[in-house]
Amino acid sequence: MKEEHHVASILDDHERECWGCGLRLLLATYSPVFKCGWCGAITSQNRKRKPDSACFSRWRCLRDRFLVIVALLFMSFVICAGVWVVYPTVFSIGYFCGIFHSTVTAILSFITISTFLLAAFRSAGSPVVITWGSYPIVGKNSLENYTFCTYCAKPKPPRAHHCRSCQMCVLDMDHHCPFIGNCVGAENHRYFIAFLLSVIVSCLYVVGMTSYSAYHIWPALELENVVSAGTDTMSAMRALKHILAVIASPVLLLSARGLLLIYLAFACLAVKIGLSALLWQQLYCIYEGKTYVSILSSQNSEHGEKGCQNILRFFGCPFWAFRLLLSSSNASKLQESSSKIL
Ligand SMILES: [Zn+2]
Ligand SMILES: [Zn+2]
Ligand SMILES: [Zn+2]
């Protein structure tokens, strides 16, 4: 009787139910994580996560909305203020120069705003609805490497992650960006990269144009005189005094245009440096065939090989580009092997 009870308790310990197909599986040893031999779903017996409180979700939602509005306002401000401060200068140079500047500004503004809206308001990539739960309906290997999302109470595909801000599972989730109020995932990652590129190019353009305009409306500076003033201490002091006098002059500092020129140049330079670092990190992750979340969670095994083909695939480059890349990489490999033999 005692022996029977012992056998039953061992069976209970090692018997687990697969969430995917509902079959009860008898495991050889106790394991908190196991994979179903029928449907391929992975069941984890780890600690159940508590759902987020309403207060926490509300705070994240408000933070995202606030930052999206800040980002939109900042972009609108840079466009409007940039046009206002630079317009008189470029049109004073020549009509063609003014038209050219207006066209470039309109194109950059359109691309930046449209890619921002696409990245922010397009779904980041929700998993497809799949049947699960009971054996006759769930087919063999139909839930291969799926896990169960305890937040959504739904199956989670292998390359998906749950975002607590968006309150959904996101395919190929890279990260949740509060400035677009959305996750960066399979469906909007390209728009996000295009947005970063567009902002960086636009900021470079703004820095260039504001510097040029400041130089143009700052005739008193006479940089040539300052540079050719000499290298001795007295000349350097005179040059410094001259620069300080010009900076404090009403032409630049006391006019709204001068203040805006300085602000726009420095603000856009700072944004450009910050976003260039972010873009570099994003392109590196794509090259490595990973996402930022997968690097953080060390789930490298779920991604493929690293290489330029990942970047071409990401941007949807045509097939001939792949062939060109493969042929060039094969040629370099052949060259390497022949040099080793020699
Ligand atoms: Zn199963
Ligand atoms: Zn989820
Ligand atoms: Zn998210």
UniProtKB/TrEMBL annotation:
It comes from the Eukaryota. The chain crosses the membrane at residues 66-87, 93-121, 191-215, 260-280. It catalyses: L-cysteinyl-[protein] + hexadecanoyl-CoA = S-hexadecanoyl-L-cysteinyl-[protein] + CoA. It is a multi-pass membrane protein. InterPro entries: Palmitoyltrfase_DHHC (IPR001594), PFA4/ZDH16/20/ERF2-like (IPR039859). Its EC number is 2.3.1.225. Its main location: membrane. Keywords: Acyltransferase, Membrane, Oxidoreductase, Transferase, Transmembrane, Transmembrane helix. The DHHC domain is required for palmitoyltransferase activity. This is S-acyltransferase. It comes from Apostasia shenzhenica.
